[in-house]
Inverse folding.
C-alpha cells in the first residue's frame, strides 16, 4: 500500500468519526436519541471508505494466537473479579440492559462502533513502521478517548470542578487507560485480542442484565486495576526472547519502541495514583484501621472520601453522613448522628461509631471536617492494617 493511500485513508476515516462525535456533543437534546440510533451507520461508512482507500492487508500476525490467549486470560480475570464483587456487594438489575430487545439495541449502538473502531485501530497501527508506531499509538489514544466520551455533553456549559474531578476518575481516566492498553496490545497482538478486551470493558456494562451493586468510583477503580494487571502480564508474556537471537537489531528496535510506550503508560498511571493517594484531587482513599465502624465500614476497608472545604461543610453535611474529621491530630471516620448550632448559628456535629455504644465525647467543628465518605472496597487495605499492627 502506498504512503499516500495510507495517509488519505487514515485522515478520511478519522475526519468522519471526529465530526460525528462533535455533532453528537452539540446537537439539540431532542435530536440526540435519533442521531445515536443512526451513528453506527456512519461508523460503518467510515470503515468502508478506509478499506477502499487502504486496500486489503494479507500480512500474517506472528503472535496472533498467543496474544488472543493472553486477552482471554484477562477476560477470565475480569469475570472472577465481577463475581467476587457481586458476592460482596450483591447483584442488581442493570437498567441499561433491562430486556432482550434493549440488549439487542445496545449491541447495535455500541457493539457496532466497538467493532469498527478496533478494526481501524488494528489496521492503522499495523500499517505504520516500527519507528512510527509509538507516535501513532499516542495519537490514537487521544482520538479514541474523545470518540468514546459521549457524556462530555453533560459537562459543557456548566462545569463544576468537584463534579468534574469525580467524572475524570470514573469516566475519562478509565477510557484513556483502556485505549492506551489497546493501542499497546495492537503492536504485536491480534485483532481478536482487541475485540476481547474492548468487549469486556466497553460492552459488558451495557449488555449484562446484572451488575454488582457498586458505587461508580469503586467500579472504575476495579476496572482500572484489572486492566493494569492484564497489561503487565501481556507485556511480560509477549516478550519473546528467542527472536532476539534471530533478528537482534530489528527486534531490539521493536522492543525498545514497545517498552517506551509501556513504561510511558505505567509512568502516567503511577503519577496519577500517587496524586490520588496523596490527596491532590477532590476524591482520596482512606484505609479503615479500627473497628469503630464495624458492620458498615469494616477494618481494612478502603474508603473513598470526597474532600470538603471548611466553608462548604454546612451546606454539604447532613445527619446520617459518615465523615472524616481530625481530632487532636488523629483522623477519625464516624457517622453524624446530630447537628447542633452555636449561638451565632454556626453548626457543629455530634458523631458516633456505628459499633460504639456511646456518641463521641467531643463535638466536631466545621474546620475539623476533612470530607464525607462516598464508597468503599472491603479488605483492600489489609496489607496496610498488617503493617500498622506491626509498628503500633
Amino acid at each position: 500500500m502506498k504512503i499516500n493511500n495510507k495517509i488519505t485513508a487514515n485522515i478520511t476515516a478519522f475526519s468522519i468519526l471526529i465530526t460525528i462525535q462533535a455533532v453528537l456533543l452539540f446537537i439539540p437534546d431532542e435530536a440526540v436519541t435519533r442521531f445515536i440510533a443512526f451513528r453506527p451507520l456512519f461508523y460503518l461508512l467510515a470503515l468502508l471508505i478506509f478499506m477502499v482507500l487502504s486496500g486489503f492487508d494479507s500480512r500474517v500476525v506472528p503472535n496472533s494466537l498467543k496474544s488472543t490467549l493472553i486477552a482471554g486470560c484477562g477476560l477470565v480475570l475480569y469475570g472472577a473479579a465481577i463475581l467476587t464483587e457481586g458476592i460482596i456487594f450483591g447483584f442488581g438489575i442493570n437498567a441499561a440492559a433491562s430486556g432482550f430487545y434493549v440488549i439487542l439495541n445496545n449491541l447495535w449502538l455500541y457493539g457496532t462502533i466497538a467493532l469498527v473502531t478496533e478494526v481501524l485501530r488494528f489496521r492503522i497501527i499495523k500499517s505504520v513502521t516500527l519507528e512510527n508506531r509509538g507516535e501513532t499509538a499516542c495519537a490514537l489514544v487521544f482520538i479514541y478517548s474523545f470518540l468514546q466520551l459521549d457524556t462530555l455533553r453533560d459537562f459543557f456549559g456548566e462545569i463544576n470542578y468537584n463534579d468534574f474531578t469525580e467524572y475524570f476518575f470514573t469516566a475519562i481516566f478509565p477510557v484513556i487507560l483502556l485505549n492506551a492498553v489497546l493501542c499497546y496490545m495492537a503492536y504485536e497482538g491480534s485483532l481478536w485480542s482487541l475485540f476481547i478486551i474492548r468487549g469486556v470493558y466497553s460492552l459488558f456494562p451495557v449488555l449484562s442484565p446484572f451488575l454488582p451493586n457498586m458505587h461508580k468510583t469503586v467500579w472504575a477503580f476495579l476496572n482500572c486495576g484489572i486492566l493494569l494487571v492484564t497489561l503487565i502480564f501481556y507485556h511480560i508474556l509477549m516478550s519473546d526472547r528467542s527472536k532476539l537471537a534471530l533478528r537482534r537489531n530489528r527486534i531490539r528496535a521493536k522492543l525498545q519502541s514497545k517498552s517506551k510506550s509501556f513504561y510511558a503508560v505505567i509512568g502516567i498511571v503511577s503519577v496519577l495514583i500517587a496524586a490520588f493517594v496523596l490527596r491532590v484531587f477532590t476524591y482520596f482513599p482512606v484505609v479503615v484501621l479500627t473497628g469503630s465502624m464495624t458492620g458498615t465500614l469494616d477494618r481494612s476497608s478502603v474508603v473513598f472520601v470526597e474532600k470538603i472545604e471548611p466553608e462548604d461543610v454546612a451546606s454539604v453535611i447532613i445527619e446520617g453522613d459518615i465523615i472524616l474529621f481530625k481530632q487532636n491530630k488523629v483522623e477519625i471516620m464516624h457517622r453524624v448522628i446530630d447537628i447542633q448550632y452555636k449561638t451565632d448559628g454556626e453548626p457543629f456535629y455530634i458523631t458516633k461509631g456505628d459499633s460504639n455504644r456511646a456518641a463521641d465525647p467531643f463535638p466536631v467543628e466545621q474546620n475539623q471536617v476533612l470530607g464525607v465518605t462516598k464508597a468503599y472496597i472491603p479488605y483492600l487495605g489489609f496489607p496496610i492494617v498488617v503493617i500498622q499492627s506491626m509498628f503500633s
User: Anything to note?
Assistant: The beta strands are 91-93, 210-212, 283-287, 302-307, 322-327, 330-341, 347-352, 369-377.
